[in-house]
Structure formats: structure tokens, C-alpha cells
Amino acid sequence: MSNLLNWIVWLPVLGILGMLVIPKSNETAIKYWAVITTAVTLILTLILWNNFDPTIADMQPNFMVKIPWIAQFNINYTLGVDGISLPMILLTALLFFLCTLASWNIPKFIKAYFALLLLLEASVLGVFLALDFFLFYVFWEVMLIPMFFLIGIWGGENREYAAIKFFLFTFLGSILMLVGMIALYYVSGQGANSFDILSLSGGHFRDLTVTMFGHDLPFNILFFIFLFIGFAIKVPVFPFHTWLPHAHVQAPTAVSVILAGVLLKMGTYGFLRIAFPIFPAASIYFADAIAWLGLVNIIYGALCAMAQTDVKKLIAYSSISHMGFVMLGLAAMTVQGMNGAVLQMFNHGTSTAMLFLLIGILYERSHHRWIIRPDGSRGFGGLYTQLPKYTIIFIIAMFASMGLPGLSGFISEALIFIGIYERFTTITVLAVFGLLLGAAYLLWMFKRMFFGEVVEDNKQYTDVNAREIFYMLPLVAAVMIFGVYPAPILNIMRASVGKLVMMLNTF
Amino acid sequence: MTSYMTNLAFYVPELIVVGAMILLLFIYAFSGGSSKKLNTILSTVAAFILVFVGYLQFGFLQAPIQEIFSRSVVIDQFGTILKMVMVVGTLGVIYMAMVSQEIVEDLKFEFIILVLGVLVGAMLLVSATSMITIYVGLETISIISYALSALKKNDDLSAEAGLKYVLYGGFASGVMLFGMSHIYGVLGTLFVYDFPAQLASLTFDNMLVLVPAFLMFFVGLGYKISAVPFHMWTPDVYEGSPVPVTTFFAIVPKVAALGALYRLSTVLIGQETILATTWITLIGIVGALTMTVGNIAAIGQRSVKRMLAYSSISHAGFIILATLVVDQIGSRSLVFYAIVYLFMTLVAFMITGAVSDKYGNDYFDRFRGLILRYPLMAISMVIIMLSLAGIPPLAGFVAKFNILAAIIKEGYYTLAVIAGLNSVISLYYYMKIVRLMVLKEAESTEDIANFSISVQSVVIFLTIPVVFLGIFWETILAFANGAQIFIK
Fold it and tell me: What's the number of domains chain A is made of?
């Protein structure tokens, strides 16, 4: 059991090694091998969930892995799981499993595709489990390589631009994070410098100053900004969001799902795991700014979504809007707000994954994604008569994303609003308009695509097949069950989130 | 004072290289003209000698630090490790020359003899401790390099490269010599390790005189490092020269001059004088400029070789920053970077050479669709490009991490941020090649490169350390930790 985390991170890598043995021509075997690898990883995370003790607020002692890596820099290979990372681990393993199933019709280089997908899974899991800042950084960066190639090789028409933009933006953020990380290392302890996230946490760096650009600046403010930019680019927080629509639209379906479902959460996870615990005073100092940025995200993302005629781009902008709610919940620094934020990270992961998967299914039939084509004619229309089963799943996904009571999005957004109301009343009121806008663009999209006259070439579309229903079902179940009974997820995070909030509120 | 025979014992590696040069010259003179067979023999002999020289250096790693030749030369671990880097670099370059189509058979032997000559100068430069030996080392490198850069005698570009190199080089060494004479005039000593003692007793006015003198001293070294603003010659020389020569210039003289610069920094930094402050400011500005200018210029290049030339300028800028940190953290980060840089540069140029050999040019488009023809070569190139940009878990990242850690420890946060942002810029143009190799398909069905089995295996052999050292860098860090520099 003590090696469980190691297995979770490295199993996909073992899967790649195994895949190398399979001949390139045997495509079915490669696909099944990828499915098996991700399925076993998912099972391992479920075992982890089963053995997780929700009463412990700290890292679960049974699962800690600590191996010295570079002794001279006091870098350790440290993995650990707590209530904040476990929901992310579950989400990641689940989505990757579903994504291998959704990648059945990849047109070219099957072997390379699945190998990169598995590498991506390993690095993302590594990010969520790493407790050494250096290790975290390495996983964070490794993730960029498979993403670049997945978008760049298997993406849409404009894939190269999107891939490079994504790579450069994220790398820019990481570099600032790297500088901050090394600076932290040298102030972390007299003679006992370390990259250990847990020992860096707790706000030790309040009174330090650094000289930069010829000025004495407060250490924690400056490097909080560095870390903030690094994570904000990933979330993405306005104005660092411009890479996201390109990456999303150009990426193949499975990669969009991973990008929206998991990778964006790495940014907010970075706040929860690193930026807030290490610089609590600076986090409090910037809480207002973060909340306002969150509000801008909500409104701006929603307005942009409303203007889109490409349905995938619309969902991409809706992600920006939804991540704004997470930022709001984080900025609240209250128990409800923080719990709501983590829950929203999970729920957005499932609901947006559903939407992207559904768009992928539709795209495989239509080979375009225009709600309104550039020439003004309708791309889709009357789909509900053609694809009844598809429509039902789509309705569930859409209402979950919208935050309809009874489905998962509602609970997390309600928690966030409860959490922030006292501190940011104005923002709360304004953010509620974001919800309204969300309902507007989703329903409008739905109306244009599913109702009305059937567009001529929509008539030959076939309804979802068994494989597609199979990989949609777990998400449908998650969205509906956690919509009425979120306790399984809330319970595991409660203690850890509570501890973080308590620590923040002592500053 | 040790006897001269003992002194010579510490100078055996260099003497062997000199001997090898003479030996090869004789073999050639009496063999009656050049042939493929003879070239193979000559290069094999040279390779064995270099391996032996490299092996001898290991012995010096264990030996105590030794000042020889009336304190003009010091044999310390710092210099010894850099010499190993240069020896391996020369070895790799000789191999490249042998398989290159660009250097005709007639010239291959000349190439070998010339690079050995530069190597001797470079080895002298990294261990030189008096201004005379520094100058001699630098000039040995320069004069032979002039001939090297004009190696393709009938090629206009190559001839132009040679001429440019001579003009700039002559100017730079003149300025440096002028500066040195000032320094001698004020301090009354030639030995760099005597500088601190002499500086301590100087009045402020005299110190001011020295500031421009040391700036001039820096010009000579900066020219060899191709530090901005003394880098003008680099792209033209790099482009005009055959790929193996370019590779050689990007490794050996650069590493040697950076070693000498570091040695100079150790004697200048650390005192609370106007000279030390100026020196630190100078190094910081030049380092930042070198990185930035190199990177920005690299973006617009059409030729991969020229792009790599500019990128090597920016890497030199990164290493220059390490010379701001004069303790063990600094020296080990410099040595670490040099080792990693060696592997990355060799592979990058080797692949470029093989591609350009096929059609005689190395424009970016030549790399289109390499992944489908030579998947292993393309993957190696991808690894090297990511490593050059500093993406973990590759060795290039660890090298950059070490230098960043060193300068951040000293509190140079601004420089660290500039260095980091430069990595982002560099990622853009490195990914241009990756994009062409992996994301595009080749325009025609013709073969696009000359990869023999032997080149492929050497490339893979050199790429493995880049991956391995990115993950398991503890041992190599310990090795670099041993790079003690002589301190008086």
C-alpha cells in the first residue's frame, strides 16, 4: 500500500514501455492496451479512495513516498495525497480512461498518439501528487511535451499555431515559477534549504525583502506574483487566457477533454497547494484582486461564449467562465468558498468533459462544428429528431454545466456563493449575472442546434453507438449522483480544505 | 620551487597534443598526397591520442593543485574538467569531419591538424594565470582559427568568413593587449593571482585607471566567447565555415575563454572596490545582452546552422552569468553547463550536418518530415531542441537550473528573470525545427538527409546522456563539484 502512489504515477509509463513492444500495424491491440493501462490506473485510484482516511487533514501518512533524489540540493522524490489532491486524482484517472475510449477513431499514428496520451496522464498525476516543488515543476513541464505534440499532430487546421502558442504561454509562466521556486529554496532555512512544499508552507517569509530592478521589494508579495502568473496562465485567468480558445478548438476531442477537464485544474490546484500555503499573507493581500479577476473571467468568458458560432469554441469560453467561479471560491478564503472551489474543480471537470466528448461525437459525424456557418447558413438544426439519445445526454451535460439544481454544477456554485457573500457582496451580486449569461449562451446554442428545422446534411447522422454510450455513462452518473449527493467528494476534501482555510485566516 | 622536469610532467597532455600535430604533419608529408584511406588512419591516430589525453586528465583530477612554469600556468580541477570537455569536443568534431561531405578529402587532414592546434591553445588558456600565457593561449586559438574558418578555400563565403575573423580578431587582441599593458603598468605584475594583493594597496584614482584597462582585457575574452557586442563576426563565420568547423568554434574556444573569464572573475569579484562593482555590472549587462541579442537574432534565421550559431551565442550569455558567482556553486554550475552544452551542441550540429550534406544547404525546410524518414534522428533532434530550450527532465534544464540557482543565491533576481524569459524566446525558434520535423510531411519522396548507420549510432550515443543527466544528475553534479579552482 505504501507504494500505491508510485504505481499510480508510473503505471502509464509502464504502459508506454509495454506499448513499444506491440507492432505498429496491430492498431486494435494498441488501443486495447491503452484502455487496459488507463483502466488499471483508474482502479488503483479507486483503491486509493477506498483506503483514504477522510479524518486526516494532513497528507495521508500511509501513502507518503519519500526517496532522496538530488542530495546536494536536498531534492527529494516526494509523493503524497490529501483531501485536495484526491478528487483531482480521481478525476484525472477517470477522464483519461474515458478519453482512450473516445480516441477510437484517431486517423493516424495510433501508437504515438496513445503513447503520448499515457505520458500526459503520468505527468498530470505526478503534478497532483508531487510534494517537492522541484518534482512538481518537472512534472508540470513534462506535461507540455505530450500536449504540444497531441495538439500539433492530431489537431485541426490551425493546429501548429495553437500548439506553439500553448507551449510558449505555459512555459513563460513556468519560468517565473522556476525563479520563484529557487528563490524560495535559498530563503527556506538556514543551512537546511529545501524544496519541500510542506515545510515551505505556513508563511515563513513575511519579513524578507529582495532587491530587484534597484528597489527593495517585499519577498512574499513579489514571489507570490511570480507564482500567481505561473498558475494563472494555466487556469487561465484573464488576461492570460488567449492561448485557451486556440488550443481547445484545434485539439483533438480527447485532448480537449483533458485540457478542460484536468489541465485547467492544475492551475487552481497550484494556488491551493503552493501559492496560498507558502504565501498566506500575500494571498490575503491579493484576495480582492483575485476575486475581481475571477469576476472578470466569469463575465468575460460568458460574453465571449455567447458570441461564438463554433460550438467547441463556445464551450472553451464557457470553461473560462466556469474557472472564474473557482477563482472566486479561492479568493473567499472561507470554508464554504474553498470547499465549493475544489468541488467546482471536480464538477466542472466532469460536466465540461461531457460537453467536449459530445461535440467530438458530433464532429465525427459532421466534420464541422459550426452552429452558424461563416456564410450565414445553419450548421446544425433539429438534431433532436435525428439523434434522440444523443440529445438526452447533451441536455444532462448542458444543465450540469449551467448549474441547474439537482445536477452537480449547482452544489459547487451555491457553496461558492455562500462562501463569498459576506466578504464580497458586490462581486457576488455581479457574479450571479454570470450564471444568467451561462444559461443564456447554453440554451441559445441548444435551441439553434437541436430545435427548428432539420438541416439537410444532418439527416444522415447516426445516433450514439454502444461504445459512445459506454464512455458517457460514468460521467452522466457522476453528474447526477454528485448533484443530489455530493457527500462522497465533499467528505474527502473537508478536513484538508478546513485546515488550509484555518491557516490562511490566522494571517 | 619545483624543478622544470616536474613542471613538464603536469604539462604532458598538452605536449602530447603538440607531438601529435607534428607527427601527423610528418605522416602526411611523406605519404604523398591525401586519400580516403590515409585520412581514416590519421583520424584514428588522432582519436586515440585524444582519448589518451582525456584519460590523462583523470589523473590530474586526483592530484593536488599545482602551479607550474614560474606560476604562469596552474593545473587545477576546474581547468582539467574543462579540458576534458574540450578534448571530447575535438574528438566529436574530428568524427564529424570524417563523415562530412562538405570538407573534401584533400582538406580533412589539414582540418585535423588545425583543430589539434586550437586545442593546445585552448588548453593553455583555461589554465593560464599570467597575462602573457593568457595572451599566448588566446592568440594560438585565434591564428589557427583564421585558417580553419577559411578552410573551404574555393568558397566565397568561407573566404569571407576567414577575412572577417582576422579583422575582428586582430582588433580584439590588440585592444586586449593594450589593456593588459595598462594593468601591468599600474599593478606591476603579470600574474592574475597577484592582482588582489596589489589592488588592495591602490588609491582610488589608480583604481579608476584600471577600470577601462580591465574592460579592454574583457574585449579579448568576450570576442572569443562571442559575447555581445563583440559577437558580430560569429554568424558570418559560423555560416561560412563547414559544419564541423562551426561545431568546433561553438565548443572549444568558447569553453576555453569562459574558463579564463571565470578565473579572472575569481580574482576581481569579492572585494569592495569600484573595480569589482564595475566588473560585476559589466558581466551582468554583457551576459543579459548576449542572451537576448543571440535569441532575438536567432528567431529570424532561415539557415539552421545560422540559427544554432545565434543560439550558441545566447547559451554563452547564460554561462557568462555563472562567472558572477565565484564560489563552488558558481564553478560547478559553469562546469555542469559546459558538459551538457558539449553533448547538445555536438548532436544538434551533427544532425544539421547530415541534413545539409544531402543538398548542400541547411535551410529549415530541409528538415520537413524528418520523423517519417529517420524517426530516431528526428526524436534525438527533438530531445536536443527541448533540452536546449531548458525543458525538464532533460540535461539542458538541469544546467540552466544550476546557473539560475547560483545567481539567485547571490541575489541577482533581475538577471534570473531575464535569463528565464530568454529561455521562452529560445523555445520559439527551437520549436520551429521540431514543428517542421514532426508536424509537417516532406514535400517530396526523395531522401532528405545523409544518415549513415555510424552517424545514427553516434547521435543516439550522444543523446542518451542528455536524457539520463536530466533525471539522474547527482553523479555529474558531484563530478562538477570537484571542479576546484585555484585560489591564492
Answer: 1
